[in-house]
Amino acid sequence: MILLTGASGFIGQHLLSALIAMYGIDNVLALTSNPISGCKYLLHNNYQFERSYFSESGYANSINIIIHAGAYTPKNASQSNDWKRCNENIYNTEKLLDTDLPNLKKVIYLSTLDVYGKADLISESSLIEPISLYGFSKLYSEKLIASWANDKNKMCQILRVGHVYGPGEEVYQKIVPVTIKKIIKNEPVQIWGSGKELRAFIYIKDIIKCILNALNLNEDIGPVNLVSSNAISIADLVNKLINISGKVINIETIATTTVGRSLIFDNSKMKQYLLLSETDFDSGLAEEWHYMNQRNGKYIL
Predict the structure, then answer these.
(1) What's one Pfam family the UniProt record gives for this protein (predicted)?
(2) Which helix or strand (DSSP H or E) is residue 189 part of?
(3) How far apart are CA 166 and CA 297, in angstroms?
(4) What are the structural domains, with CATH classification, of the chain?
(5) What is the C-alpha separation between 2 and 67, in angstroms, rounded?
(6) What whole-number distance in Å separates Cα of residue 10 and Cα of residue 4?
(7) Residue 193 CB coordination number (10 Å)
(8) Would the CA dihedral through 243, 232, 235, 172 be positive or negative?
């Protein structure tokens, strides 16, 4: 049985559906703060449970894999140093690892690119130097899991998730959903500064494929960045979304003294082990546009 945390989040909702489709409803268990229909679940109450929690619930002997996707994730930059919430990432990971699961063989942990420092090209060999408490909390949780796996002779796989786009990301204040919402409302869209800084987005379905493939990895390959190698400027991204909508939308350029940073990734390790090819960016954007447009920009997955 696979235990999934974070099943109500952006990635978690997609992942839960994929796991049930692949393994069946009886082989997937969600550890969640709120009830979820259509699956087996246990409520964790902010991870305030005892070591025997899964034994008392009758699932301890069945669980052999954990996918730890649950975490506090800032919805915008201003939340990235919320020390109370960031500390929850460490505490919750520790509580999860300390439970009595006698047949547990592997933990897959969804981490973040925020563990890296600044680099012209980010890869798994880039400098580890978080600039936020959120990044530090995820890095420390990585170390907790790796140390636990070594001590217990278990397998672990760290997946550092990059800039994900697709249906369901509207809850975050990110460039794609924010722009789409403005287009839906026929409002001007904004570009801060020149718009020349580069971003690379990976589609949610590709992320899910990577995680599912990681379930079958039987070798220690170290952390893997789940990222796209196809970079696009913010200005070109905004124009793509406007073209997909078929609308005539004004673009407002907002002057700023901040120089935008380009983020470019090397995803050769991901393609070697977890994903042969990425979803076409235009096709993925079109799917997200149609999803949000049908729901008038509201967050319903």
Answers:
(1) Epimerase
(2) strand 189-192
(3) 13
(4) 2-161 (3.40.50.720), 166-199+229-294 (3.90.25.10)
(5) 7
(6) 13
(7) 16
(8) positive
63-101 residue pLDDT tens: 999 999 999 888 777 899 999 999 999 999 999 999 999
C-alpha separations of 132 from 51, 78, 80, 142, 221 in Å: 31, 10, 6, 15, 26
Q: Kindly state the tokens that stand for 28.
A: 């997937």
How far is residue 171 CA from its own chain's centroid? 13
Q: Lay out the sheet containing 231-233: strands in order across.
A: 163-165, 198-203, 231-233
Stretch (H or E) spanning 42: strand 40-43
In the chain, the amino acid numbered 41 is Y
Structure tokens at 295: 């729901």
In terms of DSSP bridges, do strands 198-203 and 231-233 run parallel, antiparallel, or are they unpaired?
antiparallel
Q: Which amino acid is at 143?
A: K
Quick one: tokens of 298?
A: 């509201």
Residue 75: DSSP 8-state: S
Instruction: Give φ, ψ of 245 to 5 degrees.
Output: -70, -30
> Taking the CB of residue 95, how many other CB atoms lie within 10 A of it?
17
For the segment 229-279, what is each residue's pLDDT rounded down to a tens digit? 999 999 999 999 999 999 999 999 888 877 677 889 999 999 999 999 999
Interatomic CA distance for residues 210 and 215, integer angstroms: 9
> For residue 299, what pLDDT band results from cuts at 50, 70 and 90?
very low
Taking the mean position of all CA atoms in its chain, how far away is CA 189? 26
φ, ψ at 215 (rounded to 5°): -60, -30
> Distance between CA atoms of 105 and 155, rounded to whole angstroms?
6
